[in-house]
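Hey, I'm writing a tutorial for new members on how sequence and structure tokens pair up, and I'd like a real worked example in the thread rather than a made-up one. If someone can provide the structure for the chain below, I'll link this post from the tutorial.
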Amino acid sequence: MIYLGIESSCDETSVAVVSENKILANLVSSQDFHKDYGGVVPELSSRAHLEIISPLVKQAIKKASIDLNDIDVICATAGPGLIGALLVGLTFAKGLSLSLNKPFIPVNHIEGHIFSGFLMKQKPEFPMLCLVVSGGHTLLLNVKSESEIYKLGTTIDDAAGEAFDKVAKMLGLEYPGGPSIQKYAAKGDEDKIKFPISQLKNEFGFSFSGLKTAVLRYVQKEHLESKNIQKEDLQDITASFQKAVIEALKQKTDKALSIQDYNSLSLVGGVAANQKLRDAFQELSEKHNVKLIIPDLEFCGDNAAMIAHRGMQLHKSGKKFSLTHNAFASIPEGTFR
């Protein structure tokens, strides 16, 4: 069986061709022009998806060395994400499904991330504790099987990736914030500034708005504004901020591992590309003697291979979907138990 995956939830257009045991193609076209605006502009994102999706599908099919008619199932991200961007990929997939008379599978973007560890040579094992950290979501999940996902905790305000983006913008750094902060933090003193780590009544809940405000107040107090910050001070601020975010993520995950036994621990999503966070999870893995699965960098950010793989899981389970299935901006209520 050959699965075509299409991902267009935000500012990356991605097309993948996946067989049951191999990734034949996984192409990603990033919309770098959003850097000029300091964040994603939804209307411009939708237009860029429209321009690139058809040629990208053709490139992916060529790279996979197959014909269009060789595709057995067509999968596309239905949400969550930017509605305009989602509709481009979803509508394209529906049209392809109709013209080829092949099954159509709408995929939850977050579920794509959750099971992205299965794209690796070493696979996760259930039950799996999974931390999803991206620009729009921070979720700690107990994944018992492909169909049983239980939410332990989430953020009550900003997602971890959103906090990285906002603090980077506050400091005058380039969008996206994650890579920019990691770059400067590499040469900084992470113990120079003691930024707060939120403590919530929900033992597995996250909050990053207070941390973001603490960085703003520090900059205003010490430097008045971002343009007055010297490079060495910028390195210390980013390193200290990064440490606070990672410590919050690490503490909650550590607590979850202490309460229940898991066969594997998985770190997924765009922020999973952060090397310090990957190192922190390696420490947790060793502490609790649990198998750690972190996708390669190629599969941390938004990509169609994870969408095709999740679509394959849903198709194999016997699920069927109609072409009336619509896009959704937020995670539907009841998606995770």
